[in-house]
Amino acid sequence: MANLPSINIMIRLLFMQVIVILILFSLSGITAATCSMNYDNAVFENSTLSVSQNSNTQYLHDLAYDTWNCIAYYVDEKTGIPYDNSEMLDYNGNVIYFSECEDYFYQYGGGLDYKENASNCSCLGNHWGNQSDFVQYSINMSEDTDNLLFKIRYSDKFDSNNDANILRIYLDKELKGELFTKDTYDWDEFWWSDQIDMGCISTGMHELNITSENGGEWNCVNLDCFKLIDDWKNEWTGKNSENGAIITTSELQDAIHHWLDDIPVRGHIMSTADLQEIIVIWLSH
Asked: Do residues 105 and 138 make contact, with C-beta atoms less than 8 angstroms apart?
């Protein structure tokens, strides 16, 4: 008679085979996309939008749970990426906290800069980003949060005197990570950065600092706005989930249900890669 651990492994392998079949079946279905929107002059992401293709124009239409109107994008025929990078596709989890970068508590270096494509048409720039420039923000969290992600919208035009900038992000004087800017090709062309894991943040006031560590005297960057996002995985791995960071079988089944039916998870529509990530976490325990 097989022992219980062996039976458990066999069940998991069988379940994985079923999931693989479902994933392969889903690849022939209709896909969805998200887009950034300007709402009250602040840049957020809206809910997932259905997509229909007409020549090289990609029209995005609101679903029932959308609250904002959408617009049409002209996209690159090969990559499918919108030409207007100020509206480039971005992570669409729940925005827990949002701030304009020019609404700082204290800063050193640079100053207010007016850019047409910036949120509110203004940003922290005017040669901000030289070695040792920094900016400090006071953020007030209304409740304890699960793991949050940090993203910042910026512009950085590379040339012979200006290349990648290194931004260090601190929360309550603790270094949370570094961001390396990419060439946005124009000072009025703003892109969202990669994400940084900020961890759990408690209720109350906190200090968020951004420093420039580019090692050069004239290496500048424009900072438009930043946001703290509720990671969609917190639905099954957060402190208020069924078993904390460990994903249970019932939670995996719930994740599959959300994935199959395109049900938003904290504002995020799961992709096949997202489901695979959940499966890996489930298998690791």
From this structure: yes
Confidence of residue 215 (pLDDT cuts 50, 70, 90): low
Please give the Cα distance from 178 to 167 (Å, whole number): 6
Sign, CA torsion 209/210/215/219: negative
Sign (positive or negative) of CA dihedral 237, 26, 85, 73: negative
Q: What's the whole-model pTM score?
A: 0.65
Task: Please state, in angstroms and rounded to a whole number, the distance separating the CA atoms of residues 68 and 35.
Answer: 11
Residue type, 283: L
- What pLDDT is recorded for position 168? 96
How far is it, in rounded angstroms, from Cα 238 to Cα 234?
4
Q: Domains in the chain, please, with CATH?
A: 4-30+233-283 (no CATH), 32-87 (no CATH), 94-230 (2.60.120.260)
